[in-house]
């Protein structure tokens, strides 16, 4: 009885484990199907090789000339059936000439047939394809976009003016044409949106010990901006080569106040450095006097000497020398 009960419990655990594995299997299969459907729905670039345009031009022109000669010959001989064939072949050859198109360097042609994407031709020169294909030129050259000066609030709430320059190019012509309405306008709008988002996430300058600021960390800010813009433009088949801040300043309404603050910080920093240098010079002077035993000074005279030296070293005006002709004491 006990062995049977143990066997039933083991079988129940085994069945429950199998059931859990089946659920996981179904879940993973569902996720995989969703990803596959998403990839299928995304239109990606498919490169095709178009026929040489020079060869087709020579063949079509030769065929057109031959057709005209035969048409004249059959017309003179009054051979009506062959003359009708030549007449029907004439518009066909002319239509075939419309399949010729030119692909310039750093340019691609996206081919469509009645709304269906056929492929992209990247081979330069004169090419030929089905004359019923629509051919849309897409430049894959490196391009610049400079945004206008945007007025945003940084992470500290201060209004600032900021602008950027983005270097970009199209790397997937199918996504650029079919995934977005107008990829050039898409680049401009998404760049400005990314710039606003990035600027509002960081302070203009460090107030509370922030490591990354808009003014003091240009390299880090450029990398963050490039990543922000690239994440938004991936679906448009665009690669962001570089993104940098081209203009950065406080808004006019607070520029004067912030200038006074920066001047005060600069004055404090300069005074701190002057005091540190003066204290070091006084320390060296007292140490050398004591070391060389030039003169013995008590604490009161040392304090007076330190005071005089600090006044001379830290004062804004040049000190006026006064000769003491009396006794030191």
Largest sheet: 4 strands, antiparallel
Distance between the termini: 115 Å
User: What order do the helices and strands follow?
Assistant: HEHHEEEEEEEEHHHEHH
In CATH's first tier, which class of the largest domain applies?
Alpha Beta
Extended strand count? 10
**pLDDT averaged residue by residue:** 79
User: If you compute it from the alpha carbons, what radius of gyration comes out, rounded to the nearest whole angstrom?
Assistant: 41 Å
Named CATH architecture of the largest domain: 2-Layer Sandwich
Shape type: rod-shaped
The low-pLDDT segments are: none
- The CATH topology annotation of the largest domain reads as Tetrahydropterin Synthase, Chain A
The oligomeric status of these chains comes to: single chain
Helical segment count: 8
**What structural class is derived from the secondary structure elements?**
alpha+beta
- Fraction of residues in β-strands: 15-25%
**Total domain modules:** 4
Percent helix, as a range, is 40-55%
The H-level CATH homologous superfamily of the largest domain, spelled out, is Band 7 domain
Short descriptors:
329 residues; alpha+beta; 10 strands; 4 domains; three-stranded antiparallel β-sheet
Q: What's the structural blueprint in terms of helices and strands?
A:
Layout: H1 2-41, E1 51-52, H2 53-77, H3 80-97, E2 100-103, E3 107-113, E4 116-121, E5 125-128, E6 134-139, E7 143-146, E8 150-153, E9 159-170, H4 173-178, H5 183-200, H6 218-233, E10 238-250, H7 252-292, H8 299-314
Antiparallel strand pairs: 1-5, 2-5, 3-4, 3-6, 7-9, 8-9, 9-10
């Amino acid at each position: 009885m006990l062995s049977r009960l143990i066997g039933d419990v083991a079988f129940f655990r085994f069945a429950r484990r199998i059931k859990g594995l089946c659920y996981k299997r179904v879940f993973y299969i569902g996720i995989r199907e969703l990803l596959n459907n998403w990839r299928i729905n995304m239109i990606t670039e498919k490169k095709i090789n178009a026929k040489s345009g020079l060869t087709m031009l020579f063949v079509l022109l030769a065929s057109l000339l031959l057709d005209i000669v035969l048409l004249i010959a059959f017309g003179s001989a009054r051979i009506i059936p062959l003359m009708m064939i030549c007449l029907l072949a004439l518009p066909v050859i002319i239509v075939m000439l419309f399949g010729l198109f030119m692909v310039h360097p750093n340019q691609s042609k996206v081919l469509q047939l009645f709304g269906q994407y056929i492929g992209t031709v990247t081979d330069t020169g004169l090419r030929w394809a089905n004359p019923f294909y629509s051919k849309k030129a897409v430049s894959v050259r490196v391009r610049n976009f400079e945004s206008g000066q945007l007025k945003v609030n940084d992470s500290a709430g201060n209004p600032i003016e900021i602008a950027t320059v983005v270097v970009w190019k199209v790397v997937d012509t199918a996504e650029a044409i079919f995934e977005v309405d107008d990829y050039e306008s898409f680049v401009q709008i998404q760049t400005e949106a990314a710039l606003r988002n990035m600027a509002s996430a960081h302070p203009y300058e460090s107030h509370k010990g922030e490591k990354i600021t808009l003014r003091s960390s240009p390299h880090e800010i450029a990398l963050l901006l490039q990543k922000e813009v690239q994440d938004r433009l991936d679906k448009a088949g665009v690669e962001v080569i570089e993104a940098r801040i081209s203009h950065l300043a406080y808004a006019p309404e607070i520029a004067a106040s912030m200038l006074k603050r920066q001047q005060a910080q600069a004055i404090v920093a300069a005074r701190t450095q002057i005091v540190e240098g003066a204290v070091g010079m006084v320390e060296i002077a007292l140490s050398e006097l004591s070391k060389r035993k030039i003169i013995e000074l008590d604490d009161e005279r040392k304090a007076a000497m330190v005071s005089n030296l600090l006044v001379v070293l830290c004062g804004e005006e040049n000190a006026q020398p006064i000769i003491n002709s009396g006794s030191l004491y």
